[in-house]
Specification:
Helix content is about 70%, strand content about 0%. By secondary structure, it is an all-alpha fold. About 5% of the residues have low confidence.
């Protein structure tokens, strides 16, 4: 029978073999993956300082050369490291406490080598050329994400025995950079998956115009969580910088675009008595399930989607406030345009379902919002629409009999074609509308064609309201001639 000392020596030799094999494969794969270095006189000198963790690429992995060969070598290195770690773990069971402290240091190195190896494995999948096959591209990115998650897992194990004394220095900085690279590549992989799934039909054989928006939203949620709440395994927490804010704003804008597309498809079913095609209804209900939302009637879900679009657009604008203007200008314009479209659609949805009081509150809040964001054109459009809502409430003769409401009733001819009741409430409403329209038109300078169009529209509405106000005064006045003279003077 062999003695315990002989078994320990045999285990040590076996572990040394595995570690040597893993290091040889690892360093050979690193050298093969990186571009050849230019010759320099210092290249042949022996460096006394500690080397950094090998670097792949900061944002993408396209610099990984020979990805298939690197992948095979890194997989063999990972297998050897795992066997070496298992050998060390089995040897620790009967070891004294002093020896276990040395083994813990060895396990730290295993975890760091595995974290770096899995990063390079992810690079080998991300570095492959895309050939237009969306299914293959999705598989590549999902496999790369799997390896990046395993890299973060081993980094977490390494950070568990990361002392404060070793937090400084060149090597510690390279470990922090490794974590940053893995997080950045994971975010990029999620964004690539969102783009790929967005282009796919939502199910095989379905209409290509119906895309897998629900799956794309899931990938964007995962990317947003990685950027907003990074793990910070090897470094202290810090506030988000301009780059993170810009990336979060782009993700929020992207999600808002997708939700607006869903709402635009569901809007026709909001009108009373309207029905959607069976295929479109199945598609919209499937997107609700894929986004893990509670199943609601489509009119209610359409309202939710529009509200989420407004909220995400505002979030994007808030995040862009921390980004330099020369970088954020284009995205700000896109987010403001989307906010204006979704806010207007949401208000018309309230009006089309007969909720005029809620629509008026929505319009008033929107005017304050767009004035705060210095979007005077959209504020003027909402002011004109608010005036039409006030006229709709004050001139009941223009509404049809029955409980149904139609957006067409907010057009000027329908609003002002009914007979006047010559009531005090109507007089007050008309006076308020005239004052609001005059204030709104004075704020517009007509600097571009769109502002000029809104200005002309407001002038036409103001003229019609003033005409109705004058006719109502004539109907109530005991002396119509004198009233006509005063009206002309005004």
């Amino acid at each position: 029978a062999s003695s315990p000392a002989a078994e320990a020596n045999s285990s040590d030799r076996l572990r040394t073999v595995y570690v040597s094999q893993a290091l040889l494969m690892y360093h050979a794969a690193v050298r093969l993956a990186q571009p050849p270095r230019s010759s320099s006189p210092e290249r042949g000198k022996v460096q006394a300082e500690v080397k950094d963790v090998p670097t792949g690429s900061r944002w993408t992995a396209k610099s990984c050369r020979h990805p298939l060969r690197v992948r095979k070598m890194m997989l063999r290195a990972v297998q050897a490291l795992r066997k070496a770690s298992q050998t060390s773990s089995s040897q620790e069971d009967g070891s004294p406490a002093a020896s276990k402290a040395g083994k813990a240091l060895s396990h730290r190195r295993y975890h760091l080598l595995l974290a770096s190896s899995f990063e390079f494995l992810a690079d080998t999948f991300l570095a492959e050329d895309a050939h237009g096959d969306s299914g293959l591209d999705i598989s590549r990115n999902m496999t790369a994400l799997h390896h990046l998650r395993r890299s973060l897992k081993h980094l977490a194990e390494y950070a568990g025995c990361f002392t404060s004394d070793s937090a400084d220095g060149k090597f510690a900085r390279s470990v922090r950079q490794l974590e940053e690279r893995v997080n950045a590549k994971a975010v990029n992989a999620h964004l690539c998956l969102a783009r790929l799934r967005q282009r796919q039909p939502w199910r095989s054989g379905a209409d290509t115009t119906f895309r897998a928006i629900g799956q794309a939203l899931k990938e964007l949620d995962a990317a947003e969580e990685l950027v907003a709440k990074p793990s910070r395994l090897t470094q202290p927490p810090r506030a988000a910088g301009p780059y993170e804010c810009s990336l979060l704003a782009s993700i929020s804008k992207w999600k808002a675009d997708l939700l607006y597309d869903l709402a635009a498809l569901a809007l026709p079913c909001v009108a009373p008595g309207a029905e959607l095609e069976p295929g479109l209804r199945d598609y919209l209900e499937a997107q609700q399930k894929e986004t893990n939302e509670s199943l609601q009637p489509l009119p209610t879900q359409c309202e939710r989607w529009l509200q989420s679009t407004v909220s995400l657009s505002l979030r994007a604008l808030h995040q862009l406030a921390a980004v330099p203007s020369e970088v954020a200008t284009e995205l700000q314009l896109q987010a403001r345009a989307l906010l204006a479209r979704s806010y207007g659609k949401l208000g018309h949805l309230y009006a089309s379902t007969g909720r005029f009081t809620k629509a008026m509150t929505h319009a008033k809040q929107g005017i304050e919002l767009f004035n705060a964001t210095k979007d005077k054109l959209q504020a003027a459009k909402l002011q004109l629409w608010l005036c039409r809502l006030q006229l709709r409430m004050a001139v009941p003769q223009a509404a049809p009999s029955g409980k149904s409401a139609c957006v067409g009733l907010l057009e000027d001819p329908a609003l002002l074609s009914g007979l006047s009741a010559a009531s005090a409430a109507e007089e007050t409403a008309l006076t308020q509308v005239v004052q609001q329209l005059q204030k709104c038109l004075n704020a517009l300078d007509g600097s571009d064609a769109e502002e000029q169009s809104v200005f002309c529209e407001g002038q036409v509405l103001l003229g019609r309201v003033m005409l109705r106000q004058g006719l109502m005064r004539l109907a109530r006045a005991p002396a119509p001639y004198c009233t006509s003279c005063r009206l002309c003077e005004e």
